[in-house]
Design brief:
By secondary structure, the chain is an alpha/beta fold. It has helices at residues 27-37, 55-62, 75-87, 101-110, 128-135; strands at 2-3, 13-14, 45-49, 67-71, 94-97, 115-120, 140-151, 163-171, 174-181. It has a seven-stranded mixed sheet with strand order 5-4-3-6-7-9-8, with helices on one face. Strands 1-2 form a two-stranded antiparallel ribbon. The chain is globular. It starts with a strand and ends with a strand.
């Protein structure tokens, strides 16, 4: 179990799917991440890619986000995510897409969906962070930000002609990068 660290749902416990290699963002990292973001979450639309338990998106809703879209490709994991959303009474502010992140991004882009914050916590030691970052720009609002969590031993190919690293924080073996589009 993990818990929500702040906002209206502070202390609420979330189920974690028992799936090999699923690595939810720890409470400590999530709390620090949202303390860094502060007011930037309030009244914003968020996208939680590689959502797993949904902890990042649910935390954002707890801290004032108006809507969250969760993307999780594995049905069994998405079922647990839906239970977490239901237990938190967030069904009216949430949408779960059960499909791979790249397909979800293309679907959302075709609908002209825009997000202020996009959270990415792909499986470590995969190329998914780099390939997903390349698809994201059409989904961001003008002031939008992407937050990427990755292992300290890997650095996603950020594409310096597209992205600017606004901040980077290390939490043990986890690195969190805050990215904005280069303007």
């Amino acid at each position: 179990m993990i818990r929500i660290t702040g906002g209206s749902l502070k202390g609420r416990k979330l189920l974690v799917p028992s799936v090999p290699n699923l690595r939810p963002t720890t409470d400590r990292v999530r709390e620090s991440l949202f303390n860094i973001l502060g007011y930037k979450v309030n009244e914003k639309r968020v996208l939680d890619l590689f959502a797993g338990s949904g902890a990042l998106g649910i935390e954002a809703l707890s801290r004032g986000a108006i809507e969250a879209v969760f993307v999780e490709k594995y049905k069994r994991v998405a079922d647990v995510l839906r239970k977490n959303i239901s237990v938190c009474n967030l069904e009216d502010k949430s949408l779960v897409l059960t499909m791979p992140a790249d397909k979800a991004i293309l679907t959302l882009a075709r609908r002209s969906e825009k997000f202020h914050l996009i959270f990415m916590d792909p499986p470590y030691h995969s190329s998914l962070a780099s390939s997903t970052l390349a698809l994201i720009p059409p989904l961001l609002t003008d002031e939008g930000m992407v937050i990427v969590e990755h292992d300290i031993k890997e650095m996603p190919l950020i594409g310096e002609n597209i992205w600017v690293i606004e901040d980077r924080r290390r939490f043990g073996r986890t690195m969190v990068c805050f990215l904005n589009l280069r303007r």
